[in-house]
Specification:
The protein is of the alpha/beta class. It has 9 helices and 15 strands.
């Protein structure tokens, strides 16, 4: 296992469990304790974790991995969700995409749809995610609109008041919201308040809003994006509990489990 892959796995384990000791991590990754100690020390230097005696802990409940460290642990679920979300988009529409791993997969699903191979434009994509704009810019049939703003290193998203100038001037058919947390009572949320503000404005400019989720239901995060009443459709994985589906449907959200 390469160092990069090992660090990704370590950080994801740490986020899941909140705390890891050296021996536990060494066993999970099948490497030596000395290797884990060195990894913990180097990750602590980058402020990716807090080093403790014998292990490491995360910074707190709102801890967020940078996009570059997120693995494809739920890759198959995210790809199924992305295809289902992509199928909700009609040719010629204007679609807003927030940042995140799931919305990145949505962009890729749209890019390979045969009925979107041509058009003037086949789709208009409005996004504040630099990585999504970069991937889709090579598709000449897509019109790519980037919001502008200040780049956030954690998620490659553009944030801040400079984004308002673009988003206040556009109208979208659909916005795809990659949620960090989504709950019937608390609504959709993100870790960062400036990121949440941009996502909220993107949703406000859309006729319909789709929340794309992979294992984020019922979670809490620091910054509220919107209430559940602002979301028309939730696309999630097939492992979602029937009671959760019922609660969202009672709140007026159509649930598509794939």
């Amino acid at each position: 296992m390469s160092r990069d892959a090992r660090w990704k796995a370590l950080l994801e384990l740490l986020v899941e469990r909140g705390r890891l000791d050296v021996e536990e991590a060494a066993s999970a990754l099948a490497v030596s304790a000395a290797t884990i100690r060195r990894d913990f020390d180097q990750l602590a230097e980058q402020q990716m974790l807090v080093r403790t005696r014998g292990g490491a802990v995360v910074h707190g409940v709102s801890y967020e991995l940078p996009l570059r460290y997120k693995t494809a642990r739920h890759a198959s679920e995210k790809q199924r969700i992305a295809k289902a979300v992509g199928d909700l988009v009609a040719p010629g529409e204007a679609v807003g995409l927030t940042g995140g791993t799931t919305t990145t997969e949505v962009a890729r699903a749209l890019a390979v749809r045969s009925d979107l191979a041509t058009g003037s434009p086949a789709l208009t994509i409005v996004t504040n995610a630099l990585n999504i704009a970069n991937e889709l810019a090579v598709r000449p049939q897509f019109k790519i609109v980037v919001t502008g703003g200040v780049a956030r290193a954690q998620s490659y998203e553009l944030i801040g008041p400079l984004t308002d100038g673009v988003l206040s001037q556009v109208t979208l058919d659909m916005a795809v919201l990659g949620v960090v947390a989504f709950d019937v009572i608390r609504g959709a949320a993100a870790h960062d308040e400036a990121e949440a503000a941009v996502n909220r404005l993107l949703c406000e400019r859309a006729e319909r809003v789709v929340a794309a989720d992979s294992s984020k239901l019922g979670r809490r995060a620091f910054a509220r994006i919107c209430g559940v009443e602002s979301v028309n459709t939730l696309v999630t994985d097939a492992a979602v509990e029937d009671e959760t589906v019922r609660r969202f449907e009672d709140a007026g959200v159509a649930v598509l489990a794939v």
